[in-house]
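Sat 14:20. Reprocessing the chain from the morning session after the first attempt stalled halfway. Input below, unchanged.
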Amino acid sequence: MRPGDLPKGGGSLDDALGTGLTDVMRRTGAVIGGLYLIEEAEPMLRLVALCGLPVEFARTWQRLPLTAPVPVADAIRDDRLVWIGSQDEMTRRYPVAAAVLPYSFTLAAVPLTGAGRCWGGIVLMWSGDHPPQASPRERGHIMASARRLARLLDDAPRPPGFPEQPRVWPLDAVCHPEQTGMAAADYLERLPEGAVALDLEGRVTFVSGAAARLLGRPADQLLGERPWQALPWLDDPGYEDQYRTAVVSRTPVSFDALRPPDQWLTFRLHPDTSGISVRIVPCGRRPSGTAAPAAQRPVAAPTGRLYQLVHLAAALTETVTVRDVATLITDQILPAFEAQGMVLSAAEAGRLKITAHHGYPDDAVEHLDALPLDTDLTPAGQVLASGVPAFFANPADMARSHPRAPEISGKQAWAFLPLVITGRAVGCCILSYDRPHTFTADERAVLTPLARLIAQALDRARLYDVQHRLVNELQQTLLPRALPALPGLDVAARYLPAGRGLDVSGDFYDLLRLDDTTVAAFIGDVEGHSIAAATLMGQVRTAIHAHATAGAAPDEVLSRTDRLLADLESDLLVTCLYAHMDLAHGRLTLASAGHVPPLLLKPDRRGRILDIEPGPLLGIGADVRYPVTATPLRDDAVLVLYTDGLVEKPGRDATDTTSDLLKHAAGTDASDLGHLADSLIRHTWPTGQYTDDVTVLLLRATHNHVTGHGS
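Finished this time. Tokens:
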């Protein structure tokens, strides 16, 4: 069977996917690999196959939103190979992921793009001494393997499964049958230094007699155990992290540790795809620069939990809205602590208002919503008053102090986390379980500081949401509620602000009905994204509206508006394009104040960029004239007005972008102007990550008016 082919005679799709993953690792020399599939129902990325890494290490990465700031999500979204050549590059491009992976490695992520859909992606990692650039051979193997696995998924008779835990696949090591295990053991026993073998999970699989003597523990008490769990003097996150570094980076690691009372030992870890070989050498006295022994430092949570907290803390700093916070809790915190339910409440007017929930029926949410801050129906009031989390392993624990709470929620275990900032109640976060759950000491140790981080994120997000709502309301008052309907004219508009928080879009547009067969359309952009810019935008719209409806010609409309802005003594400048459309006679007259040129699309799917001589920006204040351009307006021709946010992209000339946009527009069906407007925006900004506000106004003269011109 070729790697990546569906096995015949009882082989499963999961087997074929795992075989394909290990095959690409062997071909490219990768030491760690993971295969993600997209859960369409969520949609989420689920890690289904893992090789070269313990499942515990991948806990943070087992379920990821498609929007997560990680390489595999970017590879899937952009349908391309993502290559990270160093830890520095990882930190620069993916700071949240780098916070949990402070190791030296090289990484690649590639999508599994099949026939008409993407199934997921593959992540591959190499040791820290791998060259920062991928070789052509590596790229070829990676892309070919991704295509092969995608075809396998396309052709599978049934969709793939999604196990609760990823299946771990071994990467076969080189084996020399003639070298017996006994001979190797005899060789190691003759050495004065200690020798220990660990599997990738960190468990001892071999220990020499010298190693047992140096460690002060019989071999049978070490086999199958993790050293930092079997030996109290190695029970320190710093020592466990050395092991994690060796596993992830696949590079040798060395550290010193004190075996009480006074024996210093040097540990040298040599990792490969099957495990870690450890050399233990006595070093006499404490080496210079060595940290204090674990016994002299406070006990900390296990390293895995600490990195989990670091990851969640970094992710919380990137949340913006309350919805972002709730999504992160649902997508990352619940899986990390194996919880099934969540209720996030915010303190408002003396009550706990539920802002988000997951895994609860509607009737339970109704009972729990808007409880007083000092409620005794649930432990929420108690934890908010004390600021101390409360953990309940089963309904009996809960019923002792709050007898009604278990029956209301229907859950079997709970963690009530108070969201408090400097004594001020922000809200409460409840994690719940469908089965009884005993909270370990390290879970409590991580959830307690995590509650404070959630509180800060929720407080910040609520402030943002309030500001954003106010800005949005202000924005809506400055834009037309609806464009007027006029026989003989089809219209479509799109307005997409790029600003966040208190940023207000400077784009504006409007359509004015001057009489039964004449309209004026204008579009523009005020410099900046401030409240002052929004105020000026409203004044410009009002001025243009007044001058246009008073019968001023296009150049006079702009000249008078320019003089008004000069009188207002604003420091901001404004671009504007004014179009006067005479539908009865088929004439289009335009004047521009430094605005990007419009497009004119003809019914025969030909188009052109209108050559308009621009005048100065509005607000200059000099006694200037604005040149006028006139052109025929044929039936069914489409006039495309837009702001510079549509065509100005970082690193690309706007003239080239505009020409490319014209070519796309001319080849697109224009029967539905709304569809055409959306297509223009998607063509320039396929990912929707606008760097500036984007506004598009499309107008088409139709046959439904009195005509005095040919077609």
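The longest helix spans residues 441-478.
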